[in-house]
Amino acid sequence: MGVLNVTPDSFSDGGRFLDARAAIDHASRLAAEGADILDIGAESTRPYGDAVRVPIEQERARLAPMLAEVVALGLPVSIDTMKSEIAAWALGLGAAVVNDVWGLQRDPGMAGVVAEHGASVVIMHNRDTADPAIDIVADVTAFFERSLAIAAGAGIPTTHVVLDPGIGFGKTPEQSLACIARLGTWRSFGLPLLVGASRKRFINAVVPSDPIQRIGGSIAAHLLAVEHGAAIVRVHDVAPTVQALAVAAAIRRAQ
Ligand code: HH2
């Protein structure tokens, strides 16, 4: 899953693809580099309390000039939004997946919109604040159970659900590392798992670095995530990730 942020304030690429042409070109590049899904977001979901909340009309205005053209590239498009109105509108324009960083638990209209459109949904774990004292794996499991109950209640088939522990969201860096190390725990749900570790702050906690310098750490995290059962990795740097995954798979086959 390649990331396309049309925001002025995303932590790692904010402001680069606000212009519609630049965004469409970047989406084409992600596709050419081997992305299988394009995740497009117009509101920074930055969990650090400083992201500016974007009104619905502004979020739609950022997406409107490029969404149809990105859909026309032919890859499944996922809309990264926590607002059901934006999800409904984007699904109407051909997006196939809703990527909800609040796992259907924030906007009460979200599950119904996903069900109505026959869309798929990424249920991501989130918390308002990190608590180093909690057992993060148990917290994520309980969150997934609540979200899956909401999905089932709305009539979303489980074949349309992906689970994501939400690396960096309401978690200490240690808890983010633990979510990757113990990803296999959530295989028991029998659903595809997604991990998005790309350029995130927990990497900085291991090796101090600016977001743009975190490609090595991101690749390490995604390789181990796949080793532990991730079916999808959400990344900014598609080409090096595709290469790393291909070489890891070839080594596994050579065993
Ligand atoms: N991470 C970000 C945004 N959306 N969605 C899922 N499912 N999983 C993630 O880990 C995830 C996500 C944050 O990364 P980014 O899009 O680069 O930053 P921002 O939200 O500031 O635009």
Q: Structural class of the secondary structure composition?
A: alpha/beta
Give the strand content. Answer: 5-15%
The DSSP helix count reads 10
Mean pLDDT: 95
In the CATH hierarchy, the architecture is Alpha-Beta Barrel
CATH topology: TIM Barrel
Between the first and last Cα atoms, what is the distance in angstroms?
28 Å
Bound molecule kinds, no repeats: 6-hydroxymethylpterin-diphosphate
Low-confidence runs: none
Instruction: Please give the oligomerization state of what you see.
Output: single chain
For the sheet with most strands, the description reads: 6 strands, parallel
Structural overview:
With 255 residues, the protein is α/β, with parallel strands linked by helices. The chain has a single domain (2-254), classed as Alpha-Beta Barrel (TIM Barrel), CATH 3.20.20. 42% of the residues lie in helices and 13% in strands. The chain contains ten helices and eight strands. It has helices at residues 20-32, 56-63, 67-71, 84-92, 110-117, 136-154, 173-181, 201-206, 215-227, 238-254, and strands at 2-5, 38-41, 77-80, 97-100, 120-124, 161-164, 193-195, 230-233. Helix 4 packs parallel to helix 5 and helix 9 packs across helix 10 (238-254). The mean pLDDT is 95. The site of 6-hydroxymethylpterin-diphosphate has 21 residues, from strand 1 and strand 5.
